[in-house]
Design brief:
This protein is of the alpha/beta class. The chain has one domain: Alpha-Beta Complex (Ribosomal Protein L13p, Chain: A). It has 6 helices and 6 strands. It has a 4-stranded parallel beta sheet with strand order 4-2-1-5. It has a two-stranded antiparallel ribbon with strand order 3-6. Helix 2 links the parallel strand 1 and strand 2. Helix 2 crosses helix 4 and helix 4 packs across helix 6. The longest helix is centred in the first third of the chain and has 13 residues.
């Protein structure tokens, strides 16, 4: 069995950082993408040194029937205590950020913690990202017959977010 290939920072991006140039900014559209698959692609880009903005986070999907998905998310919200956590988000952009966080070893490795800080998730497309080119990860597109979006989960959990 082969050992997994270690992800190293892109040398060109590292050189730009040493020269004081602006980081590479990637805008990724989450519409119709499976949240877990998209999170793994985003985590790889973050570890390579890119700054990633995920737009339309409310349209990322979770595969499964509505009842099964909601049961899982109600459990995630209710586990633990209100004072000590774990604190699971109700709004869709923070759910997406939490999903990406699960792909990073952010508690032990400083490089992963720094990568997590370069991640931004948005509901809809904010004004400052309006003209930038948007990347769509085709391999992350959901092909599940039954799926639920983060927006649907959030409204059923009681989140009040600006639906675009």
């Amino acid at each position: 069995m082969q050992m997994p290939k270690k992800i190293t920072q892109n040398p060109q991006i590292a050189a730009w950082a040493r020269q004081g140039k602006a980081p590479v900014v990637t805008v990724i559209d989450a519409s119709g993408a499976s949240a877990g698959r998209l999170a793994s692609y985003v985590a790889k880009r973050l570890l390579a040194g890119e700054e990633v903005h995920i737009v339309n986070s409310e349209n990322a999907t979770i595969s499964g029937s509505l009842e099964a998905v909601m049961e899982r998310y109600h459990f995630k919200r209710d586990v633990g205590t209100t004072k000590t956590g774990p604190f699971y988000p109700r709004v869709p952009h923070m759910m997406m950020k939490r999903t990406v966080r699960g792909m990073l070893n952010y508690q032990e490795l400083p490089s992963h913690r720094a990568a997590y800080k370069r991640l931004r998730c948005h509901i809809g497309v904010p004004d400052e990202l309006e003209g930038k080119p948007v990347v769509t990860e085709e391999k992350a597109k959901s092909s599940a017959q039954r799926s639920v979006t983060f927006g649907e989960i959030a409204t059923r959990l009681g989140a009040k977010f600006g639906q675009v």
